[in-house]
Design brief:
Structural class: alpha/beta
Distance between the termini: 48 Å
Number of helices: 13
Oligomer: single chain
Strand content: 15-25%
């Protein structure tokens, strides 16, 4: 097949970006012809907030670029990963106009919750499921910003009203049954949902004789449980915990972990370290749909200590492949 992947990349490289790269490689290895239409959030540094807000709801630039890409490549299928904020749902309408079916992978809960992870004030909040998410505006759920929360909510309400999510997407890919149930509850047709977990290619050899130390790998942001991690290490002073990643909490992590904060690292370097670590820490306080870091850890024989929360309770067998603890403990 000829497949056109479509993805709005994040400023800090993360799990979704890694999944896109892995799927391109896998599809090509099976003989499919794959091209990528991508925009990057670094563009936000060069445009005004007003233009960015308008593009979130409908991006003419992305619509024109994607239309031209389709005309040249003539794909059989368009596989969309992320459209927020620069590609926008205009991509679905262009695909429909060109009569190209769309498959959408749902990496987060953005279609149901403007914040994306059902998280408010460090706790799970599902009050917007199946409802108009006006509460997200009042509570400034997205980045504690009233204007940005209003833009996101406007996008969701507008495209729900004109049937974009129900009529312009042939199939949705969800990462596990927990997510599937939430999206059905939120109004997506059950017959359009398919479960396909994330995956990793395992080519690393675990070092069973020299395992030592713990690891945290991920975006350094509140929903990842960084506050819990810092407090746990403070209480258990002297524990060997390495932190790998980047994000808004970088300075705070650097202050608390010193030389054990290793910053952003390549996947190969991360996997190499996973082969000789004792365990991976995933102290998230928001829902983690299908973290690539856990798949990577398991492929290296590395057990995972994680929050007893949402999909993590299905991914990790407590006492077998890792341990589960109450979020925030």
């Amino acid at each position: 097949m000829k497949i056109l992947l479509t993805h709005n990349a994040y400023q800090n490289f993360g799990g979704e970006d890694s999944v896109v790269n892995s799927e391109i490689a896998l599809l090509r290895s099976y003989g499919h012809e794959v091209e990528l239409y991508r925009r990057h959030n670094d563009e936000l540094n060069r445009i005004s907030p007003g233009i960015a807000a308008a593009a979130t709801i409908w991006s003419k630039q992305s619509a024109d670029e994607l239309s031209a890409k389709i005309d040249v490549f003539q794909p059989d299928l368009i596989h969309v990963h992320n459209t927020f904020p620069l590609i926008s749902p205009s991509a679905y309408w262009i695909a429909a106009r060109k009569k190209i079916p769309v498959v959408q992978t749902l990496h987060n809960f953005r279609l149901l919750c403007p914040q994306g992870a059902f998280l408010r004030n460090g706790k799970i909040c599902e009050e917007c499921i199946g409802k108009i998410p006006w509460r997200a505006v009042v509570r400034k759920c997205y980045r504690n910003s009233l204007p940005q929360s209003a833009v996101l909510t406007s996008m969701l309400v507008a495209h729900r009203a004109i049937g974009t999510y129900r009529n312009k997407i042939a199939r949705y890919i969800v990462l596990n049954t927990f997510c599937r149930d939430r999206f059905i509850e939120g109004g997506l047709p059950a017959e359009q949902l398919r479960v396909k977990p994330n995956f990793v290619e395992s080519k690393y050899i675990p070092d069973w004789g020299a395992r030592r130390g713990a690891m945290f790998v991920g975006r350094l942001s509140p929903e990842k449980g960084i506050d819990t991690l810092i407090e746990a290490v403070r209480i258990n002073s002297g524990k060997n915990v390495s932190v790998i990643g980047s994000g808004p909490y970088e300075r705070r992590v650097a202050e608390n972990f010193g030389e054990q904060y290793l910053g952003f690292m390549s996947r190969d370097d991360i996997m190499f370290r996973m082969c000789s670590a004792l365990y991976l820490l995933v102290p998230s306080v928001g829902y983690e749909n299908s973290p690539c870091t856990i798949m990577e850890a398991f492929s290296c024989g590395l057990p995972v200590i994680a929050s007893r929360l949402g999909p993590l309770t299905n991914i990790i067998q407590d006492g077998v492949t890792g341990l589960l603890f109450n979020p925030g403990d």
